[in-house]
Design brief:
It is built from 11 helices and 15 strands. The chain is α/β, with parallel strands linked by helices. It has 2 domains: about 1-125 and about 295-320, Medium-chain alcohol dehydrogenases, catalytic domain (Quinone Oxidoreductase, Chain A, domain 1, Alpha-Beta Complex); about 130-270, 3-Layer(aba) Sandwich (Rossmann fold), CATH 3.40.50. It is globular and about 60 Å long. Pfam families: ADH_N, ADH_zinc_N. Its EC number is 1.6.5.5.
């Protein structure tokens, strides 16, 4: 099979190459998926670049997320069938075969049925962003009905799905963005109110329209801390899924408001809570509540260029298309 690999961390153009590999066989509890579309997340290019401090022991096929068709099943797999469309998550986690290849072999629980009405591009957009969003929203859609959620960075991948999942659960959703282009994306996702986080009256507008916020899905806590504190209700929760370096926290103010501060990294989420996020995402997907981000497609041979594009954090989702669309 043709696959993108890297054998050491470093710049995309220096370490990524497309090679021929033997098609891997699924072991017990695993499935093999013929990949149609492979999604690129920040964690994918950051790991390749060396920010995770890991060097492959032989080679690594990158990318956690993707969509395709089950090609073979290992012993003990009963919930998936050959020929079934699926979306994948955490494919490259403790696994040599990520989705940047014609085939990937993954544990069966990381391959989730993809409805006929959902495109491969949408399937490849899910994975880490949608599951992170569901977890940051509390993992239980039944607890969000009638609540108010603030999504910081509403045009990003996690922000996009946080808006759609929260709206599907019956929440009122406010989103912050940094440009008119991103405002349009957050509004298209269904946010009830979209404001620029740099506007001096952002907090007032949020309070006037939405009142105190029950939960914040936060991408940049240091940048947004003052705004978050100005609009968060008491008690309230801030779920943080991205890093900005060191930060001094107003512990006394948080204590007075009984604020809950959660730090979220999907790799460390318990299997029980991860399964809850998968269920929420799958239910919303089946009901047509989730949509693909604007897609920036590349071929497998353009994998280095695709990584370089993803590093620039453009609006939308950078993907590799391995099958005809």
């Amino acid at each position: 099979m043709r696959a993108a690999v890297y054998r050491r961390p470093g710049p995309a153009a220096e370490v990524l190459e497309v090679v021929e590999l033997e098609v891997p066989e699924p072991g017990p509890g695993q499935v093999r998926v013929r990949i149609a579309t492979s999604g690129i997340n920040p964690t994918d290019w950051k790991t390749r670049a060396g920010f995770a401090g890991r060097t492959p022991d032989w080679f690594q096929v990158p990318h956690h997320d993707g969509a395709g068709v089950v090609d073979a099943v290992g012993d003990g797999v009963t919930d998936l069938q050959v020929g079934q469309r699926v979306w994948l998550y955490l494919a490259a986690f403790h696994n040599r075969y990520g989705t940047a290849a014609e085939f990937a072999v993954v544990p069966a629980e990381r391959a989730v049925p993809l409805p006929d009405g959902a495109s491969d591009d949408l399937g490849a957009c899910l994975g880490i962003p949608a599951l992170t969003a569901a977890h940051c929203l509390g993992g239980n859609p039944g607890e969000l009905a009638g609540r108010t959620v603030l999504v910081a960075g509403g045009a990003g991948a996690v922000g996009h799905f946080a808006i759609e999942l929260a709206k599907h659960a019956g929440a009122r959703v406010v989103a912050t963005v940094s440009s008119d282009e991103k405002r349009a994306l957050a509004e298209k996702a269904g946010a009830d109110l979209v404001v620029r986080y740099t506007d001096p009256d952002a907090a007032r507008r949020i309070r006037d329209v939405a009142g105190p916020v029950d939960r914040i899905v936060e991408v940049a806590l240091a940048t947004n801390l003052d705004l978050d504190m100005a609009v968060l209700g008491a008690p309230g929760t801030i779920a943080v899924y991205a890093t900005e370096g060191e930060l001094a926290l107003p512990v006394g103010e948080f204590m007075k408001a009984n604020t809950t501060l959660e730090f979220v990294l999907l790799y460390g989420v318990s299997p029980h809570r991860l399964a809850a996020a998968v269920r929420w995402t799958s239910d919303a997907l089946a009901r047509g509540a989730l949509s693909a981000l604007p897609v920036l497609p590349h071929s497998l041979d353009e994998v280095a260029r695709a990584h370089e594009t993803a590093e620039q954090a453009p609006p939308g989702k950078v993907v590799l298309r391995l099958a005809a669309h």
